[in-house]
Amino acid sequence: MYAVVRTAGKQYRVAAQDKIFVDMLVGQPGETVAFDDVLMLGGDDGVTVGSPTIAGARVEAEVVEHTRGPRLTVFKKRRRKNSRRKNGHRQDRTVLKVLQIVGAGSAASPEPEAAPSAPEADGGPAPQPGA
Q1: Are 75 and 86 in contact (CB under 8 A)?
Q2: Which of 44, 58, 76, 119 would you call most buried, defined as having the most Cβ atoms within 10 angstroms of its Cβ?
Q3: Residue 61: which residues within 8 A CB-CB, separation 6 or more?
Q4: pLDDT grade, residue 19 (50/70/90)?
Q5: What is the mean pLDDT of residues 90-114?
Q6: Where are the domains of the chain?
Q7: How many CB atoms lie within 10 A of CB 28?
Q8: What are 24-72's pLDDT values in tens digits?
Q9: CA distance 92 to 89
Q10: Secondary structure in 3-state letters for the chain
């Protein structure tokens, strides 16, 4: 089973036991984070697409470590002006290990409402008073 989740304005396709790099999240290594913005679920039984998200679906992941991305060089030059600027940048990132994907109809999701009352349970219309 796989899912497409959204965090920090970016979308990631994840499956169980995947390691992903996302923008810096709050949490210590070993803590569990949950993503409720699940845009799509896919598996053996087909694909479920949310509009925009799937209600009741979530992805649980464990924070492995906080790290920094690759070094980027930012170079700005204005031609014929003898003006140059060179800077570097490294983005802070969090490494996550996906623990499980909980679908909308799974046992871990909230239980549905109780069964309707007896007159409506037989499939016929409820009796009207005074009729």
Answers
A1: yes
A2: 58
A3: 14, 20, 32, 33, 34, 35, 96, 97, 98, 99
A4: very high
A5: 74
A6: 2-77+84-107
A7: 7
A8: 999 999 999 999 999 999 988 899 898 899 999 999 999 999 999 999 9
A9: 10
A10: CEEEEEECCEEEEEECCCEEEEECCCCCCCCEEEECCEEEEEECCEEEECCCCCCCCEEEEEEEEEEECCCEEEEEEECCCCEEEEEEECCEEEEEEEEEEECCCCCCCCCCCCCCCHHHHCCCCCCCCCC
* Residue at token pair 């290594």: 29
- Mean pLDDT score, 8-16: 95
| Those residues with Cβ within 8 angstroms of residue 41's Cβ, 6 or more apart along the chain or in another chain | 1, 2, 3, 47, 48, 54, 57, 101, 103, 104
Per-residue tokens: 24? 């810096």
Kindly state the tokens that stand for 44: 């053996």
